[in-house]
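Recap from last week: sequence in, structure out.
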Amino acid sequence: MPLPARVHALAVEFRGFGIRDSKRNLRSGGNRLRNVLLTSTALFVALGAGHHFTVHAQSDVSDADLTAASGPRVVRLGSASGAGRPVELPLEVYVARVLAGEAEPRAAEGSQRALAIAIRTFAIVNAGRHAREGFDLCDSTHCQVPRAATATTRRATRATTGQVLTRNGTPAEVFYSASCGGYSESAAEVWPGADYPYMPAAPDEMHAEDAPWTLALTLREIEQSLRAAGFQGQLTSISIDGRNVSGRVTRLRLAGLRPDLIAGDRFRGVIGATRVRSTAFTLEPSGESVRLTGRGYGHGVGMCVIGAARRAARGDSAEMILSKYFPGLEITRLAGASAPASTARPAPASIPRPGAASMSRAGIVVNVGGASGITADQLFRVATQAHDDMVAALGSSVAPISIRVHESIDTFRAATNKPWWVSAVSIDTSIDLVPASVLAQREGVEFTLRTAMAEVLVAESLRGRPAWVRVGAARYFGRGTRTNQASGAVRCPSDAELNLAVSAAAQRDAESRAEACFAREYARTGDWRAVR
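Predicted structure tokens:
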């Protein structure tokens, strides 16, 4: 029987105080329940035999409350599909909405609060991740997935207002996934070059009774997906070629295809992350088909959402859960954030955020991270010269061109989804670069920027050609000196060799062959637009 509207408006389902738990939980929660009844707006509605009662355990938290608690902090949220315009949300409103999208719906309070802190930390650290698209974070799993906030997610957000995970006083890069399947993953295994010692590969005892997932695929299905990603040839067999300490697949051997290796996480992405739920799987061939049997869902790095929910169900607090999944990090409140009245916390430390600088002139926009190793003025001078040189060499120009030098390899990886060994990414008229200090150890700021600029300028004319044509043209003109032409025996790289390389050495080899192949065909045609 539903409550009268007048009563329902004042009451919420009484959860989190042991009413549905064991007698032990009822006893341990007694003092807490008594305090709530004395200090909260509590309402018991007796409706006679056979009916239920509901308790308003605490005042509902509204979006207006979260907006006030956010202060000046906002998140510019954009659509991953490109539909609609970005919206600006107060930080705590954003956290409550993402918590509704990412948390176990009926998870206990400790899990909700722990994930709220992780979500807020991710948002702070990754602000500007989609800067070139004009917003901070997208609404897909590339960033975090928001849904309509609930009373539960608003309460968990308000209870943790301003709290983030820090390392040495600075907000830490943190990750979480749906289920680690019994063994969390090291970040470096998923994103080569990442250095997060507080997210190690470690067993998680909360998954002992999880049922495995299975997936049957034909070799033809796999081949079609790999061909769409740029592989060439005919797949005759597939096998696991390597595993890491957590037992996840690091490489698969693809007999009959070129290249004949693919990283485990790349394979998952090519087949579909909702089909191959994780890289923690075994593979059994059977004629023209294979059967995958696996555990977990997601990359497995950092906090396990399902594991956290099970820990909270047994009574673990948010602090206990976070210390399990992020050992060595501390919970700190952002400077200026207002603490809930019920939460006693020490005075927060101010969180330093490195500044950024930007310049815009003559159709070139540059943005430099605070610790990127180059000033905006220096970058602008190099970019202007590179642009003028490439326009003269190619007879082609586009504007405006935006260039962003990231403050770290981690922010570059997060924005581009490329491994650590990639130095630059050019998409449409935007260029992302790793820090200048890193470029100085590779091919240098000038050559990298000239190559990226050339790729932007040739992209439209070479659209629809194999990737080696575009990459080869960019490196050929970016170098500015004559490149040795490929002999007839040199094989031009497939798209997959350039876009899905399994190592830095494989990437360099593919790019070198792309440049040599382009030089050969350019010498033959005399027109870079005619190379195909």
